Amino acid sequence: MKVTILQFPGTNCEYDTQHAFEQLGATCEIIWHKSESIPSDTNLLVVAGGFSYGDYLRSGAIAKFSPVMKAVTTYANKGGKVLGICNGFQVLTEAGLLPGALKRNDGLHFISKHHTLKVENNDNTFLKKLNNGDVVNIPIAHHDGNYFIDEAGLADLEKNNQILLRYTDEKGNLQNPNGSVSSIAGICNKDKNVFGLMPHPERAMESILGSDDGVKMLEGFLAS
Amino acid sequence: MTAIVNVSLKAGVLDSQGKAVHHALDSLNFEGVEDVRIGKQIVLQLAETDKDKAMTEVTKMCEEILANTVIEDYKIELI
């Protein structure tokens, strides 16, 4: 299992992501955004979190023009699996690989804390090791995590089971920290090979550090 | 030629910053403010001298990068 992790200027979660996937037995390679291709043995491509290009203009807006993004789009369009975490999610929406956009949090504050999330649809690679309705505890750390999509887009997401996770309380009742439409924390594309979420599963790999609920999420990509 | 691009959240997309500023104006007893929207202004100095060509080019810039048309509208002024 080979995980390729993208690194833009300002990315800061690439090493955490590498550590998390290596803990699960994967081989990881971090590639710089100037690369015009991605390693041919890649099984999963991760757009890691951080602040690519300092979040200038809009979060993820400038990263989408990095040389590597053409290769990412080609890889995704061929059915390759892509996971965008936090800033990676923002980059994937800006690049048009995922629908919607991420706006400034409604409360205008940067939010950094553990949050509980409910699994909405597990009929995909990412969440297949979890059950629908499971509640997981995963850290969030973002300023622009307020997911927006228009009503027609939301109806499409619902219809195609593209909503992966919603922000909830510990019992699974909706609890919205940032104003996201329908309390959405993560989605996938229609073909279910491109995934994006604001929470950080790679930071929830050991119970001694607060939660190991990220293990079951990331393991989905490793299990056949 | 100078192009002034104003980018703001679309009508119907909640503008949290605008709302916070509206609230602050209320607190300061400025009455009669019905709505506040906050955007950003991008000023471009262009070599192009033909207005139509400049408008076409800047519109392309807005569509491709300066605005995210999922959530934002843009207005272009050429001077």
Task: Walk me through this protein's architecture.
The complex is a heterodimer of chains A (224) and B (79). Chain A is α/β, with parallel strands linked by helices. Chain A has one domain (2-219): Rossmann fold. Chain A has 5 helices and 11 strands. Chain A has helices at residues 14-23, 68-77, 87-94, 151-159, 213-219; strands at residues 2-7, 27-32, 44-47, 81-85, 101-103, 111-119, 135-142, 146-148, 163-168, 184-188, 194-197. In chain A, strand 3 (44-47), helix 2 (68-77) and strand 4 (81-85) form a beta-alpha-beta unit. By secondary structure, chain B is of the alpha+beta class. Chain B has a single domain (2-78), classed as 2-Layer Sandwich (Mth169, Chain: A), CATH 3.30.1280.10. Helices cover 35% and strands 28% of the residues of chain B. Chain B contains 2 helices and 3 strands, in the order βαβαβ. Chain B has helices at 16-27, 51-66, and strands spanning 2-9, 39-45, 72-78. The radius of gyration of chain B is 16 Å and the shape is elongated. The chains are: A alpha/beta (224), B alpha+beta (79). Chains A and B meet through loops of A and helix 1 of B.
Question: Can you describe this structure in just a few lines?
Answer:
With 224 residues, chain A is an alpha/beta fold.
What's the architecture of chain A in CATH terms? 3-Layer(aba) Sandwich
Strand content of chain A: 25-35%
**Structural class computed from helices and strand pairing of chain A:** alpha/beta
Identify the CATH homologous superfamily of chain B: Phosphoribosylformylglycinamidine synthase subunit PurS
The CATH topology of chain B, please? Mth169, Chain: A
Helical content of chain B (DSSP H or I, runs of 4+): 25-40%
Mean pLDDT of chain A: 97
Using DSSP, what is the number of strands of chain A?
A: 11
Dominant shape of chain B? elongated
The computed structural class of chain B is: alpha+beta
Protein chain pair with the most extensive contact, residues per chain: A-B, 19 and 11 residues
Strand order, biggest sheet of chain A?
2-1-3-4-11-10-9-6-7
Number of β-strand runs of chain B? 3
Tell me the β content of chain B: 25-35%
At the fold tier of CATH, the topology name of chain A is Rossmann fold
